[in-house]
Amino acid sequence: MIRVVLPHHLRTLARVGDEVKLEVNGRATTQSVLDALEARYPMLRGTIRDHGTQKRRPMVRFFVCGEDVSHDPPDTALPEAIVNGAEPFFIMGAIAGG
Prior knowledge:
CATH superfamily: Beta-grasp domain
Number of domains: 1
Mean pLDDT: 94
Radius of gyration: 13 Å
Low-confidence stretches: none
CATH topology: Ubiquitin-like (UB roll)
Order of helices and strands: EHEHEEHE
């Protein structure tokens, strides 16, 4: 089981707690985690990735084992600590302002 931590506004939209647990088919990658998340919580489609291109939205970041993997290719394998649930996959909203 892969643990995913969502930002507050997406938790509210999906009506879930702080963390969700997902079963990922095949190799665990950012893409497969997001596919599983959107399949289980269809109301999140288009909020994290663009509907058409499937690219990450500009103000969304992904963190794995304390590292920002937002710019890594989406098919990069995730570390074993994520795969076995020891560490969560974080989805965070970037903060901007002036």
